[in-house]
Amino acid sequence: MRREEPVGSVAIRVSRFSHYFGAEQTLAELDLDINRNEILGIIGPARSGKSTFLCALNRLNDLVRGSRVEGRIEIDGRNIYDADVDVIELRRKLGTVFATPIPLPRSILENVAFGPRMAGVRDRVRLDEVVRDSLEKAGLWEEVKDRLDTSGLKLSGGQQQRLCLARILALKPEFILLDEPTSGLDPISTMKIEDSLRKLKKDYTIILVTNNTKQAARVADRTAFFLNGGLIEIGPTAGIFTAPADKRTDDYLRGRFG
Amino acid sequence: MNRLERKDRLVRLALLMIAFSAVSILAVITVFMFEQGTPIMFKYGLKSFLAGTDWYPSEKSFGLWPMIVGSIYVTTGAMVIGVPFGLACAIVLTEFSSKRVRGVIKPVIELLAGIPSVVYGFMGVVILVPFIRQTLGGPGLSVLAASIILGIMILPTIISISVDSIQAIPPAYREGSLALGATKWQTVRMVLLPAARSGIIASIILGMGRAIGETMAVIMIAGNAISVPRSLLAPVRTLTSNIALEMGYAAGEHRQALFATGVILFIIIMVLNTVANMTSSRRRRTKG
Amino acid sequence: MRVDPRLSQRIAKTLLWAMTILTVAVLVFIIFFVLRKGLPALDLDFLTRNPVDMGKGGGIFSTIIGTIVLTALAILIATPLGVGTAIYLTEYTWENTVTRVIRFGAECLAGIPSIIFGLFGFILFVTKLGFGWSILSGALTLAFMILPTIIRTSEEAIKSVPAAYRQVSFSLGGTKWQTVTRVVLPSAVPGIVTGIILSVGRSIGETAAVIFTAGSALRIPTSLFSSSRTMSVHFYILAREGISMSRAYGTAAVLVIAILLVNIATYYLMNRFIRRYS
User: Fold this and answer.
1) Interchain CB distance below 8 Å, B5 and A88
2) Does residue B22 lie in a domain region?
3) CB contact (8 A) between residue C173 and residue A92
């Protein structure tokens, strides 16, 4: 159930959040807010904790041995690391698209219907509706509507990634998390996905991790710069790119490292 | 907690119980065998058991030496035949044949792995044994016959594992060698075989394990005489044959002695398998 | 004196090919010999009549039944145990010493000769538990014999399912069990079934473990506790006692054909398995 929040209100509040894999610290005392219906871009060099942060939000990190957290992440007012939190529901609420498109070895329709099926939706009519709706939102419907029964593996890279997007949309999430979603794609596919994100912003809150700073500049409303597991600065994209407050941000944007 | 997660917990418990049962069954087999077989070994002394040359169960004389020697001879003979031919096939399959040829030979070899041992034994009895008897003398039922048939039987093991090891070598090795002007054979000899060495050794050890453990074929063609074989043409009895031949009517200490034989075989094969595992995993570890 | 490397290659190639051809020839010869001598004995009568006069006459029908029942029962027992264990080991536990020990144990037991299983089965099932020479004893013994193989092949099949698929399932809100049943197992099934079929092949040809546990009664088994003879055991007895050469060859031919069919099925499945991931 989604509450109708005014644009600009806080959707996720991260307070002094740290993460460890065993003895190694991967995220250090993160403090940031993510606003509803915005696209937040996260940039930074490799191994700066960007992906780890996403996986902390959807608690996929929990699946790795030795994962440990400190601090709080509050979504809709509740700390998602509380003991009685329904992690399954959390992961449906925060749909994640990964860097490499991973269609499951089944038909396009089955791919998109996978999430709802696991959630218990059995009615064929309803599933077909959800599949069509999600594929339209992901911008893939026109291209595959005649071949929903063919294998998802047969699609091109860009189409596969949009399929992955449709897959998470089928669960009607509140948030869309994307981890370098276009890093392996051609420019046209990249553009199509960026267009989809702009349209989706209306109904979802989007967090986009990217190693392509230009993409953040094109798409994100606000941008955050991560370095070595810490948040260096965060602010409206235009401001970050033209007049970064921190020298390290400036160095990274100019390509002096990373 | 989500309803689905609750179900997950139950499933986990069920699977744990299944895994536990399976594992404990396997453990029971091991423990049981040792429990049945070791007392008699200590009663008569390990040395007299292993090194005694007289196996007269009715007179409480349990010397396994002739059978131990028999197993060693027959296994060695099998290796002498199986390893060169097995390696030759492996090399030809990986380096000197086209895909189509490979597609024909490989299934044939895998088929051979599935032929029951009694059929091999039968072929030995019907063709090989008379042949040996006519051309080389002796009763035909001999170390030689057993070695040849066993050698044939372990070929699929050696071939398939060696082929896997050679094929697992990164193409860069081959390409690098050929780029330096080496012929294919030189590449095989100086680069591929050394690189696949641990896998090949593992295959040989596993083949050895299979040869030692083979029973039915050996019973049919080896002669089963309880004496240390004096030549290749002499009849021989192996540890496995000993168990199979006498288990039908053994009782009391005799039966325990057969169990003890089983324990010894068990230990030998465990050792062989461990060594084989270690050689192939060491290679995997160093390759990173 | 240095030999021209091209010459030594030609020599090596010739020698190696000669050895290979010899090997393949020997193996093919065995199959053809058995089939040539055995197929004449194969007629509907042979396959549908029971052995008569200790096997000197009649057919092998009861042994076919014995083989089928024994193998089917062994597979029915070993498959849930083996696949369940494999699932648990790979999906529900972290890699630690316990799992390593279990895996090592399974690998070792996979190499134990069948005669030892026969010995074990004889003492435990036939004697101690009092089942006597019976299908029950035989099936249990066979089941334990193939259990390590099924665990091993199932584990390999499950492990070869890309980790990414699991990640997708979890990120879409799947539980462990849902991930296993909807993503991992469907992809691993060809590999698992291959392992099962290989075990079927092994059970069909198994003699040493069966003869000491299921006995060698010639009648069609009527209950789990009846003794029964399998084709391999029948073949062994016919051959060793010299009862009937033609029928021995006939039985061998049936065995070889059965193995051929099993291998073809395995090959077909393996190809599907490989094609899925290339």
Assistant:
1) yes
2) no
3) yes
What stretches of B45-116 show up as alpha helix (H) in DSSP?
46-51, 65-95, 99-114
For CA atoms C93, A106, A175, B9, the dihedral sign is negative
Inspect the interface and report whether the beta carbons of C88 and B18 lie closer than 8 Å. Answer: yes
Q: Which two tokens stand for residue A11?
A: 């959707």
Residue B110 lies in domain: 55-287
Residue B215: closest CA among C68, C240, C31 = C240
Distances (CA, A) of C39 to B115, C233, C246: 17, 19, 10
Cα separation, C258 vs C261, in Å, equals: 5
Across the interface, whether the CB atoms of C171 and A100 are under 8 A apart is answered no
Judge if pTM exceeds 0.80.
yes
Q: Determine the residue type at A50.
A: K
| pLDDT by 10s per residue, chain C, length 278 | 577 878 888 888 889 999 989 988 988 898 899 988 888 888 887 888 887 777 777 788 888 888 999 999 999 999 999 999 899 888 888 777 777 777 777 777 777 888 888 988 888 888 888 888 899 999 999 999 999 889 988 998 999 899 999 999 999 999 888 999 999 999 888 889 888 988 998 899 899 999 899 888 888 888 888 888 899 999 998 888 888 888 888 889 999 999 888 888 888 877 776 666 54
Distance in angstroms (rounded) separating the CA atoms of residues B108 and B103: 9
Please state the CATH superfamily assignment of the domain spanning residues C44-277 in this structure: MetI-like (1.10.3720.10)
In a domain, B12, yes or no: no
Structure tokens at A178: 């994307």
| Residue C120, Cβ density class (10 Å: 0-12 exposed, 13-18 middle, ≥19 buried) | buried
In a domain, B65, yes or no: yes
Among candidate residues B216, B217, B264, the one with its CA nearest the CA of residue B67: B264
Which residues of C, range 177-216, sit inside 8 Å of A by Cβ? 178, 182-183, 186-187
What's the complex ipTM? 0.89
- Quick one: which of C66, C55, C33 has its CA closest to C241? C55
d(CA A62, CA A57): 10
Distance between the two ends of chain A, CA-based, in angstroms? Answer: 41
**Can you give the CATH number for the domain in which A63 is found?**
3.40.50.300
CA distances from A33 to A87, A204, B49, C206 (A): 21, 16, 79, 68
User: Are the C-beta atoms of residues A180 and A209 closer than 8 Å to each other?
Assistant: yes
- Note the residue count of chain A: 258
- Residue type at B48? S
List residues bridging with B56 in a β-sheet: B61
Tokens representing B168 are 């697992």
* DSSP 8-state class, residue A154: G
B274 inside domain: yes
B84 reaches C (C-beta below 8 A):
yes
Residue C58 β-bridge partners: C51
